[in-house]
Design goal:
Length: 111
Amino acid sequence: MDMRSTIVYLAATLSTFTLIVLWFAGSYQVLYKKRDSVYKALEELQLHKSGYNEKIGRPEEQTAKHMFEISCQIFEQIITSYNKTIKSPIYLIPGILMGFKSIVWNQKQSI
């Protein structure tokens, strides 16, 4: 193998490695932000649930219940968005290798 071929192979290897590193770094950034938004939405949901539980039997009960239901809907939308992202082809392989998993939640599940 001559020097020219070695340089070409080295450049191709370095380019491919760089592309993979950038792919994984970008995927991590997107998936981490989406997963973090799920955790923040869960905290918000827990706050609304505790607020609703405090208001049971009071005149503000209906308002608190409505806010809790809206919070549940928002939480479900955020989980759906995260799960769609993690299952998309561009994020699937890096997501699996970096430990990101789909989140399963149903409204009957305790918060």
